[in-house]
Design goal:
Layout: H1 2-18, E1 40-42, E2 48-50, E3 57-59, H2 62-67, E4 77-81, H3 82-87, E5 99-100, H4 106-111, E6 116-119, H5 126-134, E7 139-141, H6 148-161, H7 165-182, E8 193-200, E9 203-206, H8 212-219, E10 223-224, E11 236-237, H9 239-245, E12 249-252, E13 272-275, H10 287-299
Parallel strand pairs: 3-4, 3-6, 4-5, 6-7, 8-10, 8-12, 12-13
Antiparallel strand pairs: 1-2, 8-9, 9-11
Length: 302
Protein backbone atom coordinates (compact mmCIF):
# COMPACT_ATOMS: atom_id res chain seq x y z
CA UNK A 1 0.00 0.00 0.00
CA UNK A 2 2.93 2.37 0.75
CA UNK A 3 4.36 1.58 -2.69
CA UNK A 4 1.00 2.43 -4.28
CA UNK A 5 0.97 5.72 -2.28
CA UNK A 6 4.40 6.61 -3.62
CA UNK A 7 3.35 5.95 -7.19
CA UNK A 8 0.20 8.00 -6.76
CA UNK A 9 2.20 10.88 -5.25
CA UNK A 10 4.66 10.83 -8.14
CA UNK A 11 1.73 10.80 -10.58
CA UNK A 12 0.14 13.79 -8.88
CA UNK A 13 3.38 15.78 -9.04
CA UNK A 14 3.86 14.98 -12.69
CA UNK A 15 0.30 15.86 -13.57
CA UNK A 16 0.33 19.16 -11.69
CA UNK A 17 3.59 20.21 -13.26
CA UNK A 18 2.51 19.34 -16.77
CA UNK A 19 -1.11 20.45 -16.72
CA UNK A 20 -0.38 23.86 -18.20
CA UNK A 21 1.26 22.35 -21.28
CA UNK A 22 -0.96 19.36 -22.10
CA UNK A 23 -2.55 20.94 -25.16
CA UNK A 24 0.27 23.16 -26.45
CA UNK A 25 0.80 22.95 -30.25
CA UNK A 26 3.96 21.29 -31.48
CA UNK A 27 6.01 21.65 -34.67
CA UNK A 28 4.72 19.99 -37.80
CA UNK A 29 7.63 17.54 -37.65
CA UNK A 30 6.04 15.90 -34.60
CA UNK A 31 2.79 15.19 -36.42
CA UNK A 32 1.48 11.85 -37.53
CA UNK A 33 1.31 11.67 -41.33
CA UNK A 34 -1.77 13.23 -42.87
CA UNK A 35 -2.73 15.56 -40.03
CA UNK A 36 -3.48 19.11 -41.11
CA UNK A 37 -2.47 20.87 -37.87
CA UNK A 38 -0.40 20.27 -34.78
CA UNK A 39 -2.49 17.90 -32.65
CA UNK A 40 -1.61 15.73 -29.73
CA UNK A 41 -1.00 15.86 -26.00
CA UNK A 42 1.84 15.77 -23.50
CA UNK A 43 1.41 12.65 -21.40
CA UNK A 44 2.07 12.21 -17.68
CA UNK A 45 5.73 11.36 -18.29
CA UNK A 46 6.32 14.53 -20.31
CA UNK A 47 6.31 12.73 -23.65
CA UNK A 48 4.67 14.40 -26.66
CA UNK A 49 2.11 11.98 -28.13
CA UNK A 50 0.95 13.02 -31.60
CA UNK A 51 -2.63 12.43 -32.67
CA UNK A 52 -3.03 9.89 -35.43
CA UNK A 53 -5.08 7.19 -37.05
CA UNK A 54 -3.68 4.45 -34.83
CA UNK A 55 -4.88 1.03 -36.01
CA UNK A 56 -3.17 -1.35 -33.56
CA UNK A 57 -3.72 -0.06 -30.03
CA UNK A 58 -2.57 -1.99 -26.95
CA UNK A 59 -4.87 -0.83 -24.14
CA UNK A 60 -2.94 -1.88 -21.04
CA UNK A 61 -4.72 0.77 -18.98
CA UNK A 62 -8.06 -0.23 -17.47
CA UNK A 63 -9.22 3.35 -18.07
CA UNK A 64 -8.39 3.01 -21.77
CA UNK A 65 -10.19 -0.35 -21.92
CA UNK A 66 -13.38 1.33 -20.67
CA UNK A 67 -13.09 4.51 -22.74
CA UNK A 68 -11.87 3.39 -26.15
CA UNK A 69 -15.02 1.43 -27.16
CA UNK A 70 -16.92 4.74 -26.96
CA UNK A 71 -14.40 6.44 -29.22
CA UNK A 72 -13.21 4.03 -31.91
CA UNK A 73 -13.92 0.75 -33.66
CA UNK A 74 -12.89 -2.32 -31.67
CA UNK A 75 -10.97 -3.49 -34.73
CA UNK A 76 -8.32 -0.93 -33.81
CA UNK A 77 -7.63 -2.53 -30.40
CA UNK A 78 -5.18 -5.47 -30.37
CA UNK A 79 -4.65 -5.99 -26.61
CA UNK A 80 -6.67 -5.28 -23.47
CA UNK A 81 -5.94 -5.58 -19.76
CA UNK A 82 -6.58 -8.99 -18.20
CA UNK A 83 -7.86 -7.32 -15.03
CA UNK A 84 -10.40 -5.35 -17.07
CA UNK A 85 -11.54 -8.40 -18.99
CA UNK A 86 -11.85 -10.45 -15.79
CA UNK A 87 -13.58 -7.91 -13.54
CA UNK A 88 -15.05 -4.90 -15.34
CA UNK A 89 -18.78 -4.60 -15.87
CA UNK A 90 -18.11 -3.42 -19.41
CA UNK A 91 -15.80 -6.35 -20.27
CA UNK A 92 -18.40 -7.73 -22.67
CA UNK A 93 -17.63 -4.82 -24.99
CA UNK A 94 -14.04 -5.97 -25.52
CA UNK A 95 -14.74 -9.69 -25.49
CA UNK A 96 -12.62 -11.61 -27.98
CA UNK A 97 -9.70 -9.17 -27.95
CA UNK A 98 -6.45 -10.80 -26.74
CA UNK A 99 -5.60 -10.01 -23.13
CA UNK A 100 -2.34 -9.32 -21.33
CA UNK A 101 -1.96 -10.21 -17.66
CA UNK A 102 1.03 -8.04 -16.82
CA UNK A 103 2.06 -4.74 -18.35
CA UNK A 104 5.69 -5.89 -18.08
CA UNK A 105 5.11 -8.75 -20.53
CA UNK A 106 7.07 -7.01 -23.23
CA UNK A 107 7.29 -10.01 -25.55
CA UNK A 108 3.49 -10.23 -25.74
CA UNK A 109 3.23 -6.51 -26.39
CA UNK A 110 5.80 -6.68 -29.18
CA UNK A 111 4.11 -9.73 -30.73
CA UNK A 112 0.88 -7.71 -31.05
CA UNK A 113 2.77 -5.14 -33.18
CA UNK A 114 1.00 -2.11 -31.62
CA UNK A 115 1.38 1.37 -33.06
CA UNK A 116 0.19 2.84 -29.73
CA UNK A 117 0.57 1.44 -26.19
CA UNK A 118 -1.63 3.06 -23.53
CA UNK A 119 -0.71 2.67 -19.86
CA UNK A 120 -1.18 4.26 -16.46
CA UNK A 121 2.10 4.86 -14.65
CA UNK A 122 0.46 3.33 -11.58
CA UNK A 123 0.62 0.00 -13.43
CA UNK A 124 4.14 0.07 -14.86
CA UNK A 125 7.71 0.55 -13.74
CA UNK A 126 9.42 3.49 -15.50
CA UNK A 127 12.11 1.09 -16.71
CA UNK A 128 9.49 -0.91 -18.62
CA UNK A 129 8.14 2.23 -20.29
CA UNK A 130 11.66 3.30 -21.19
CA UNK A 131 12.42 -0.09 -22.71
CA UNK A 132 9.26 -0.05 -24.83
CA UNK A 133 10.11 3.41 -26.09
CA UNK A 134 13.68 2.38 -26.87
CA UNK A 135 12.21 -0.43 -28.96
CA UNK A 136 10.43 2.21 -31.03
CA UNK A 137 6.91 1.96 -29.59
CA UNK A 138 4.73 4.99 -28.95
CA UNK A 139 3.77 4.72 -25.25
CA UNK A 140 1.03 7.01 -23.96
CA UNK A 141 1.13 7.31 -20.15
CA UNK A 142 -2.22 8.48 -18.76
CA UNK A 143 -0.78 9.11 -15.32
CA UNK A 144 -2.36 8.45 -11.94
CA UNK A 145 -5.67 6.81 -11.09
CA UNK A 146 -7.60 9.22 -8.86
CA UNK A 147 -11.11 8.95 -10.26
CA UNK A 148 -12.84 11.91 -11.97
CA UNK A 149 -10.00 14.46 -11.48
CA UNK A 150 -7.74 12.30 -13.65
CA UNK A 151 -10.42 10.42 -15.57
CA UNK A 152 -12.05 13.46 -17.20
CA UNK A 153 -8.73 14.77 -18.63
CA UNK A 154 -7.80 11.18 -19.58
CA UNK A 155 -10.93 10.86 -21.71
CA UNK A 156 -10.21 14.12 -23.52
CA UNK A 157 -6.55 13.25 -24.06
CA UNK A 158 -7.30 9.73 -25.27
CA UNK A 159 -9.84 11.09 -27.71
CA UNK A 160 -7.39 13.69 -29.00
CA UNK A 161 -4.66 11.10 -29.58
CA UNK A 162 -6.94 8.69 -31.49
CA UNK A 163 -8.40 11.48 -33.61
CA UNK A 164 -11.80 11.81 -31.90
CA UNK A 165 -11.34 15.02 -29.91
CA UNK A 166 -14.91 16.28 -30.29
CA UNK A 167 -16.42 12.94 -29.33
CA UNK A 168 -14.13 12.73 -26.31
CA UNK A 169 -15.00 16.25 -25.16
CA UNK A 170 -18.68 15.37 -25.36
CA UNK A 171 -18.17 12.08 -23.51
CA UNK A 172 -16.18 13.77 -20.73
CA UNK A 173 -18.75 16.53 -20.36
CA UNK A 174 -21.65 14.07 -20.16
CA UNK A 175 -19.88 11.93 -17.55
CA UNK A 176 -19.09 14.95 -15.39
CA UNK A 177 -22.66 16.20 -15.61
CA UNK A 178 -24.17 12.83 -14.75
CA UNK A 179 -21.86 12.36 -11.79
CA UNK A 180 -22.75 15.80 -10.47
CA UNK A 181 -26.48 15.11 -10.77
CA UNK A 182 -26.61 11.86 -8.76
CA UNK A 183 -26.80 13.49 -5.32
CA UNK A 184 -27.33 17.12 -6.31
CA UNK A 185 -30.73 17.16 -4.59
CA UNK A 186 -29.35 16.06 -1.18
CA UNK A 187 -28.84 19.17 1.00
CA UNK A 188 -25.36 19.55 2.48
CA UNK A 189 -26.70 19.38 6.04
CA UNK A 190 -28.46 16.07 5.32
CA UNK A 191 -25.51 14.23 3.82
CA UNK A 192 -24.42 11.23 5.83
CA UNK A 193 -20.91 11.02 7.27
CA UNK A 194 -18.96 8.20 5.67
CA UNK A 195 -15.55 6.65 5.20
CA UNK A 196 -14.03 4.11 2.85
CA UNK A 197 -12.20 1.32 4.68
CA UNK A 198 -10.59 -1.97 3.77
CA UNK A 199 -9.06 -4.57 6.05
CA UNK A 200 -5.51 -5.81 5.58
CA UNK A 201 -4.74 -8.29 8.31
CA UNK A 202 -5.41 -6.46 11.57
CA UNK A 203 -5.06 -3.06 9.95
CA UNK A 204 -7.69 -0.74 8.53
CA UNK A 205 -6.68 1.14 5.37
CA UNK A 206 -8.77 4.08 4.24
CA UNK A 207 -9.23 5.77 0.87
CA UNK A 208 -9.61 9.53 1.07
CA UNK A 209 -8.46 12.73 -0.69
CA UNK A 210 -6.09 11.85 -3.52
CA UNK A 211 -7.80 8.51 -4.15
CA UNK A 212 -10.77 7.63 -6.34
CA UNK A 213 -12.72 6.47 -3.27
CA UNK A 214 -12.95 10.01 -1.93
CA UNK A 215 -14.79 11.01 -5.11
CA UNK A 216 -16.96 7.91 -5.01
CA UNK A 217 -18.21 9.02 -1.60
CA UNK A 218 -18.58 12.65 -2.57
CA UNK A 219 -20.55 12.07 -5.77
CA UNK A 220 -22.80 9.59 -3.94
CA UNK A 221 -23.80 12.41 -1.58
CA UNK A 222 -21.66 11.35 1.37
CA UNK A 223 -19.31 13.42 3.52
CA UNK A 224 -15.84 11.86 3.69
CA UNK A 225 -14.94 12.08 7.38
CA UNK A 226 -11.27 11.31 6.66
CA UNK A 227 -10.93 14.30 4.32
CA UNK A 228 -9.30 17.53 5.42
CA UNK A 229 -7.12 15.85 8.04
CA UNK A 230 -3.81 15.93 6.19
CA UNK A 231 -3.84 12.18 5.56
CA UNK A 232 -2.26 10.31 2.65
CA UNK A 233 -4.66 8.99 -0.02
CA UNK A 234 -4.42 5.49 1.53
CA UNK A 235 -3.96 6.08 5.28
CA UNK A 236 -3.88 3.52 8.04
CA UNK A 237 -6.87 4.22 10.28
CA UNK A 238 -6.70 3.38 13.97
CA UNK A 239 -9.74 2.10 15.84
CA UNK A 240 -9.78 5.10 18.18
CA UNK A 241 -9.73 7.48 15.18
CA UNK A 242 -12.65 5.70 13.59
CA UNK A 243 -14.70 5.81 16.78
CA UNK A 244 -13.87 9.48 17.28
CA UNK A 245 -14.89 10.41 13.71
CA UNK A 246 -18.12 8.42 14.16
CA UNK A 247 -19.04 7.75 10.52
CA UNK A 248 -22.63 6.77 9.88
CA UNK A 249 -21.66 4.77 6.80
CA UNK A 250 -18.61 2.59 6.16
CA UNK A 251 -18.03 1.69 2.52
CA UNK A 252 -15.81 -1.33 1.99
CA UNK A 253 -14.90 -4.07 -0.48
CA UNK A 254 -16.91 -7.22 -1.01
CA UNK A 255 -16.81 -9.67 1.90
CA UNK A 256 -15.46 -7.19 4.48
CA UNK A 257 -18.71 -6.20 6.21
CA UNK A 258 -18.60 -9.09 8.68
CA UNK A 259 -14.88 -8.71 9.42
CA UNK A 260 -14.44 -5.00 10.15
CA UNK A 261 -16.49 -4.98 13.40
CA UNK A 262 -14.40 -7.91 14.69
CA UNK A 263 -11.18 -5.91 14.71
CA UNK A 264 -9.84 -4.91 18.14
CA UNK A 265 -11.54 -1.82 19.55
CA UNK A 266 -14.44 -1.79 17.09
CA UNK A 267 -17.03 -3.83 18.99
CA UNK A 268 -18.95 -0.64 19.79
CA UNK A 269 -18.94 0.61 16.22
CA UNK A 270 -22.48 1.55 15.20
CA UNK A 271 -21.93 2.53 11.57
CA UNK A 272 -23.85 0.86 8.78
CA UNK A 273 -21.48 -1.06 6.48
CA UNK A 274 -22.06 -1.06 2.70
CA UNK A 275 -20.06 -3.43 0.51
CA UNK A 276 -18.92 -2.62 -3.00
CA UNK A 277 -19.25 -5.36 -5.64
CA UNK A 278 -16.37 -7.69 -6.48
CA UNK A 279 -14.14 -6.34 -9.22
CA UNK A 280 -15.13 -2.80 -8.30
CA UNK A 281 -13.24 -0.08 -10.21
CA UNK A 282 -13.67 3.57 -9.33
CA UNK A 283 -10.93 4.86 -11.63
CA UNK A 284 -12.74 4.63 -15.00
CA UNK A 285 -16.15 5.58 -16.41
CA UNK A 286 -17.77 2.68 -14.52
CA UNK A 287 -17.51 4.89 -11.44
CA UNK A 288 -20.82 6.43 -12.54
CA UNK A 289 -22.69 3.15 -12.11
CA UNK A 290 -21.01 2.55 -8.76
CA UNK A 291 -21.87 6.07 -7.57
CA UNK A 292 -25.51 5.48 -8.54
CA UNK A 293 -25.54 2.08 -6.82
CA UNK A 294 -23.95 3.47 -3.66
CA UNK A 295 -26.40 6.37 -3.55
CA UNK A 296 -29.31 3.91 -3.91
CA UNK A 297 -27.91 1.68 -1.15
CA UNK A 298 -27.52 4.60 1.26
CA UNK A 299 -30.39 6.94 0.47
CA UNK A 300 -32.88 4.69 -1.33
CA UNK A 301 -35.48 6.69 -3.27
CA UNK A 302 -34.58 10.03 -1.69
Amino acid sequence: MAYRDALLLISALLLSGLAAWRQLPRPQAALAPGLESAAGVIDASGQWIPAGDYQRIAALSTVACQVLPDLISLNRIVLVSYWHQRHARSAFRTQGIPVIEGADQIEIILAARPDLVIINNFQMQPAVVDRLRRLGLTVFDLGGLEGPPTLIPNIRDLATVVGEAERGARLARQLQQRLSMVAAHVPADQRLRAIYLDRHGDQLIGGTEGSSFHHLLRYAGLEDVAAGRGLSPWPQIRAEQLLQWAPEIIVTSAGMAEHIPLLPGLRSLEARIVELPRGFDSTGPEILEHVEDLFQAVYGEL
